[in-house]
Design brief:
The chain is of the alpha+beta class. The protein has 14 helices and seven strands. The protein has three domains: about 110 residues, 2-Layer Sandwich (TATA-Binding Protein); about 110 residues, Hypothetical protein, domain 2 (Endonuclease III, domain 1), CATH 1.10.340.30; about 50 residues, Orthogonal Bundle (Endonuclease Iii, domain 2), CATH 1.10.1670.
Length: about 300
């Protein structure tokens, strides 16, 4: 389907904020089908009450402008963009906790803010696809999922796809989902979760109003969501920057690069180094992961 401009609003992010740096994470594997950063603009394709929508955010007159395209919606582009890009996050308390290592990284990453998913369901499905495999492979599977089961949206000569609605995935069986490259277990988990969300027996959005611990308990009660998955959903889907999946190899490697002269940190060591940032431990982990990503690019 094609899109019409429904609304546009100006945004004033809480400073410091580096829009280009923060959005560059979406271009690491090329242009994604539903979330991407291309030509200096951020794009997010999603569904709202069954309507396919496309949000664009780009710099304008020293601020940011958010535009919402689609056929019908009363959604506020400023609210959606603020949530997705963590625009209201105040980095000052985090920066005040910086140790020597983080202070050096902050010179390069000043104004970096972590992204969030549109829904908790989206974060959970993404986390399941990423269980125990490399991010590039997981991204390939996710892209296939969007392109096969999302709704196609045409905009300025570009093609985007919405993240598949739970109603759409609930109509599939495990064999359909295995066709995008997912394992048997992952296919079953996603199919079952989608059925519950579509039926209204699993309200993932309600987790946003819970404390971090209560939300984590609720996630762990879902079949297919272990500790690693629950922590990633808390970070991506709920914006809980205090959470850290300390067993994550990427985080342990990043801690090792910057705190242990390259030797991979144990889970206990990662916790020791990151817990000093208190309620910003998850944000500190994100900075290390991002710095590791930039470090790897420089070595190529």
């Amino acid at each position: 389907m094609k899109t019409d401009l429904l609304s546009e609003e100006m945004l004033e992010p809480v400073t410091p904020y580096n829009f280009e740096l923060s959005c560059s994470i979406f271009s690491r594997f090329g242009r994604g089908p539903h979330t991407s950063f291309s030509g200096g603009a951020f794009y997010k394709c999603f569904e709202e009450a069954g309507n396919p929508l496309l949000l664009t955010v780009f710099p304008s007159d020293g601020r940011l402008k958010a535009r919402l395209f689609g056929s019908d919606s009363k959604a506020k582009p400023n609210l959606i963009a603020s949530w997705l890009l963590s625009l209201n996050l105040d980095l000052h308390p985090f920066y005040e906790r910086a140790d020597g290592v983080m202070s050096r990284l902050m010179k390069t990453l000043h104004g970096l803010k972590p992204p969030r998913t549109r829904t908790v369901y989206e974060a959970l499905v993404i986390a399941i696809t990423e269980q125990q495999i490399g991010l590039r492979i997981a991204q390939t599977f996710q892209n296939r999922l969007m392109e096969r089961y999302g709704t196609k949206v045409q905009h300025d000569g570009e093609t985007f796809f919405t993240f598949p609605a739970p109603e759409r995935l609930s109509a599939l069986d495990q064999h359909d989902l295995r066709g995008v490259g997912l394992s048997k277990n992952k296919s079953r988990f996603i199919a079952d979760i989608s059925k519950e969300v579509a039926a209204g027996t699993l309200n993932l959005e309600s987790l946003k109003s819970m404390s971090t611990e209560k939300a984590r308990e609720a996630l762990l009660s879902i079949r297919g969501a272990g500790q690693w998955t629950a922590d990633h959903v808390l970070i991506r889907g709920l914006g809980r920057i205090d959470m850290v999946p300390y067993d994550d190899l990427g985080i342990r490697d990043a801690v090792g690069i910057f705190y242990k002269a390259g030797a991979r940190a144990t889970s206990e060591e990662a916790k020791l180094f990151l817990s000093r940032f208190g309620s910003y431990a998850g944000l500190a982990a994100y900075y290390l992961i991002f710095a590791r990503f930039l470090h790897a690019k420089e070595l190529k």
